[in-house]
Amino acid sequence: MSSTMRIYWRIVVLVILLVTAAGSGVMRPGVAADVESRALPRSAPEAQGIDSAALLEFINAANEKVETMNSILLVRHGHVVAEGYWSPYNAETRHALYSLTKSFTSSAIGLAVAEGKLSIDDLVLPLFPEDAPAEPGANLKALRVRDLLTMSVGHHAEASNRPGEDWTRNFLAQPVEHKPGTYFLYNTPGSHMLSAIVQKATGLTTLEYLRPRLFAPLGIEDPVWMSSPQGVTSGGWGLKLRTREIARFGQLYLQKGRWQGRQLLPASWVETATARQVSNGSNPASDWEQGYAFQFWRCRHRIFRGDGAFGQYCVIMPEQDAVLVITSGVKNMQSVLDLVWERLLPVFKEKPLPANAARHQQLNRRLADLKVRTAEGAATSALASGISGKFYKFPVNELKIDSIALNAGASGETTLTIRRNGSDQPVVIGHGEWKKGTLAYGEWPSQPVAASGAWIAPDLYLARLCFYEEPFILDLRLKFENGKVVFDGEFNVYFRGPTKQPRLVGG
């Protein structure tokens, strides 16, 4: 593993540890009822101008063409008309938003502006005198809050945010080669600066500031959101929410900031924050080159969205009066939007359609039966009894795995045990189904995982591990031969670097 990848994984470990710590709160009495009161009403698709059969075709197309769907929720005219989860993903579990987090940070800025705490024309540098470089350049001195919002800071390359470093100081030390407002560069550290500005202006972290103003009114009572080493809510990523909660956020923006009779966000802010502010390309076929707003992307078809790595989308369709939320694990994010424009956008009709209970029931059955593909193969092998329970020891390795054992229990249930630092981690594996447990892998701390497995050859076992609070699925192939095991792992998607993990050989 390169030094760059080692640095990256240390960052991942820090992020996961911080997220875990941030989410350790206890649900307060009355919260469940309050969340329910904030829920969007449900409706048959036909009552909202959508044919259930056409919607079913879209769901089937997404299931077939998108590498790994996690969840989908469609709102039309303020009503949920379709909601589904690819097991082991479910409605109750939060999902990583990645850069969709940025749209929530933008909302915090909008609220702070409305309360007179700051202006988007404020200069950034005077807000952080203790972190300013000794001799700031003219471009840094000219940087304003609006330039952070529009990803037009003027950096030619992003600043780095490493564990233990000061993220704000790193940002201000980064050379600003271009005049602010004139050069678009997707800039996650810049988004983090927006969160730091909220904290400076209000005296509260962005998470604390949004709790009573946005999260509680929307029924989002227990958001998980990571912080920087300095205790600043991460402005660029690190938020985890449930799919229904993302949908309410999207509906708030569709309704120009109004929610259940209350104006949570000024309508003028919503209009400005979602309108094209800067150019970011000219390719008419790319939804990443239709212009950028205030931490929102403009799309084709006069639509806008927030999105995050590997296919986390909150798509707001004003002309269709609809919100679409998708969580997924994909390499090609454009392909998902292409499918939405081609197969879903045409199904919206202006008037209600005749009721069709049979089609609606068929759609609901399909939505209830969605499942991430499990490992396909035999439940057992002639080889299984000979290797069952035997630990295969590995040399010292980057994955920090001491040894592994595959145990075929008396009931036919398979257990994969991964030994790390002398401690055993048993993971029960389902055949044709997902079994839930926890696992620490590589430099990741223990987190929820679901496992499915099968013998795909007489001497080759495939364990599929789904980290279902994230889009990550890890395929572990264990080949048993000549008293040894060859251990190969590969992720479906991965940050910066190959999806394939280092091969281990043990005996």
Oligomer: single chain
CATH class of the largest domain: Alpha Beta
* Shape descriptor: globular
Mean pLDDT: 92
The count of domains is: 3
CATH-defined architecture of the largest domain: 3-Layer(aba) Sandwich
Indicate the structural class. Answer: alpha+beta
User: What is the CATH superfamily label of the largest domain?
Assistant: DD-peptidase/beta-lactamase superfamily
Helix content: 25-40%
Kindly describe this structure.
With 507 residues, the chain is of the alpha+beta class. It folds into three domains: 42-93 and 287-372, 2-Layer Sandwich (Beta-Lactamase), CATH 3.30.450; 94-241, DD-peptidase/beta-lactamase superfamily (Beta-lactamase); 384-506, Calycin beta-barrel core domain (Lipocalin). The chain contains 14 helices and 21 strands. The chain has helices spanning 3-22, 31-37, 52-65, 101-114, 138-142, 145-149, 167-173, 188-202, 206-215, 243-254, 267-274, 333-344, 357-368, 384-387, and strands at 69-76, 79-85, 95-96, 224-225, 239-241, 258-259, 262-263, 297-298, 304-308, 312-317, 322-328, 392-393, 403-408, 414-420, 423-429, 435-439, 447-457, 460-466, 473-481, 484-491, 504-506. α4 (101-114) packs parallel to α8 (188-202). The longest helix has 20 residues, at 3-22. The radius of gyration is 24 Å and the shape is globular.
